[in-house]
């Protein structure tokens, strides 16, 4: 097993293999076939940033345990093009404990979170090789947005409800407008000589858009409630909270149904349709780079570091906003999400270049619907358990930008074809929304022209 892996790696990395076996050619052919099918969009996208490791040095180490550890270390830490950002992790921790400026801690933690987020998706994928596609899909669904979830929980713990709402909202916006826009734009331009428009499978996009519209309804109703109550905020606060919690439970039920739909009944819609699944037994042997147990240990370690850095990010966001002159809403809507999803974003764009739009859409839309239908309601339920009054009322500006982002995306993906103009329009939408939050220096404290209403943020934070 180990020797086969080493061979395959040596072959790929151009290392010299001294003892020849006959089955190498078949293995390589098999490997080429394997990498092309039976994997969901998320795995495909994150894998585009990986580098093949050259294990020729490590394989010379005699002691088995040590060799395994070094191999894992090399695969996990150096197996990504983002590994140059890893030094930011210890630097952020040092900066925090040596009392450097808080903006420094914020910036370094943001940088450090980028490779960590990518590695978590890599490790869940490794685990998926052992557990089979269904469990792997579930793992991907939950760990794919681990960073967002952890940041949200820490912000809740610090009672920074604004940061929670903003970062989750920003995550949806960046997936729908920035990632999708860039992908369609670049993909359209790159393939303009080959074809006038790129094709993709509409069925998957339709289901995701429907989920997003349901999520949008759940965000709009509490807001409408506030207006329906004659702008008397105190009177509508409890009903809004109750409605939000009920909606969250509905959204979670819907998400579970969606997982069942995606992993069980309609799996063929979501798998990247290329080739046929005849080499699956080889893939589990060839592809898994890390042992099952060690993958879990790595996952736990990564999560600890992500949690640590998330705590720094949440704790220093206000001081960073003061010293840089950017509003907290801009930092958490525009900067935080880009960091948590950087690897996925890059992957989506790379696949658009390769004219595989199904994967791109699977990543961007999949992440957006995951956050809106799973992470947001989950944070509201967690807040409920912690005794914090967090509701789905995301203020007017935020909810409206979300609504328009979802509508624009849904209309863009209507006809199953794409060209660079569609991507360009989506990108411009993102630019305008980020400009709005950039200009909005302070959260609008006097809410709704101050007609006897108390602003939502202070009312909730004071609770």
UniProtKB/TrEMBL annotation:
It is found in: Vacuole membrane. It is a multi-pass membrane protein. The chain crosses the membrane at residues 76-97, 103-122, 134-157, 169-190, 211-228, 240-261, 295-317, 329-353, 365-388, 394-413, 420-440. It comes from the Eukaryota. InterPro entries: CaH_exchang, CAX-like, NaCa_Exmemb, NCX_ion-bd_dom_sf. One of its GO terms (molecular function) is calcium:proton antiporter activity. Keywords: Antiport, Calcium, Calcium transport, Ion transport, Membrane, Transmembrane, Transmembrane helix, Transport, Vacuole. One of its GO terms (biological process) is lithium ion transport. Pfam families: Na_Ca_ex. Residues 20-48 are annotated as: Disordered. Residues 103-263, 295-438 form the Sodium/calcium exchanger membrane region domain. Its main location: membrane. One of its GO terms (cellular component) is calcium:proton antiporter complex. Vacuolar cation/proton exchanger (CAX). Translocates Ca(2+) and other metal ions into vacuoles using the proton gradient formed by H(+)-ATPase and H(+)-pyrophosphatase. Belongs to the Ca(2+):cation antiporter (CaCA) (TC 2.A.19) family. Cation/proton exchanger (CAX) subfamily. This is Vacuolar cation/proton exchanger.
């Amino acid at each position: 097993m180990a020797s086969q892996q080493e061979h395959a790696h040596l072959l790929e990395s151009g290392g010299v293999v001294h003892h020849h076996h006959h089955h190498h050619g078949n293995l390589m052919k098999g490997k080429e076939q394997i990498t092309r099918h039976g994997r969901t969009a998320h795995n495909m996208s994150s894998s585009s940033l990986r580098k093949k490791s050259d294990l020729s040095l490590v394989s010379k180490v005699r002691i088995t345990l040590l060799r395994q550890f070094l191999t894992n270390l090399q695969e996990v830490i150096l197996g990504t093009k983002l590994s140059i950002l890893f030094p930011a992790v210890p630097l952020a921790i040092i900066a925090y404990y040596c009392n450097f400026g808080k903006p420094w801690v914020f910036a370094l933690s943001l940088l450090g979170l980028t490779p960590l987020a990518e590695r978590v998706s890599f490790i869940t994928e490794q685990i998926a090789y052992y557990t089979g596609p269904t469990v792997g899909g579930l793992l991907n669904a939950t760990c794919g947005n681990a960073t967002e979830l952890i940041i949200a929980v820490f912000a809740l713990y610090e009672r920074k409800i604004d940061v929670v709402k903003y970062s989750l909202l920003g995550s949806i916006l960046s997936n729908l407008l920035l990632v999708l826009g860039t992908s369609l734009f670049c993909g359209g331009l790159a393939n303009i000589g080959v074809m006038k428009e790129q094709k993709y499978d509409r069925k998957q996009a339709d289901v995701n858009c429907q989920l997003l519209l349901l999520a949008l309804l759940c965000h709009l109703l509490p807001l409408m409630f506030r207006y329906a109550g004659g702008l008397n905020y105190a009177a509508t606060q409890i009903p809004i909270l109750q409605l939000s919690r009920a909606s969250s439970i509905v959204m979670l039920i819907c998400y579970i149904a969606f997982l069942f739909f995606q992993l069980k009944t309609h799996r063929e819609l979501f798998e990247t349709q290329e080739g046929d699944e005849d080499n699956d037994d080889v893939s589990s042997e060839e592809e898994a780079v890390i042992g099952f147990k060690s993958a879990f240990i790595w996952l736990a370690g990564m999560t600890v570091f992500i949690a640590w850095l998330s705590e720094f990010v949440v704790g220093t966001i206000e001081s960073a906003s003061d010293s840089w002159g950017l509003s907290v809403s801009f930092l958490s809507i525009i900067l935080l999400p880009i960091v948590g999803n950087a690897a996925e974003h890059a992957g989506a764009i790379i696949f658009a270049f390769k004219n595989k739009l199904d994967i791109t859409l699977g990543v961007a839309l999949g992440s957006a619907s995951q956050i809106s239908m799973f992470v947001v309601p989950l944070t509201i339920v967690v807040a409920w358990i912690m005794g914090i009054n967090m509701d789905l009322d995301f203020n007017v500006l935020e909810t409206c930008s979300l609504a328009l982002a979802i509508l624009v995306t849904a209309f863009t993906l209507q006809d199953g074809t794409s060209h660079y103009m569609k991507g360009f329009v989506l990108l411009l939408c993102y630019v305008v929304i980020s400009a709005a939050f950039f200009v909005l220096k302070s959260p609008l404290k006097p809410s709704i022209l101050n007609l006897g209403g108390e602003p939502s943020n202070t009312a909730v934070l004071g609770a």
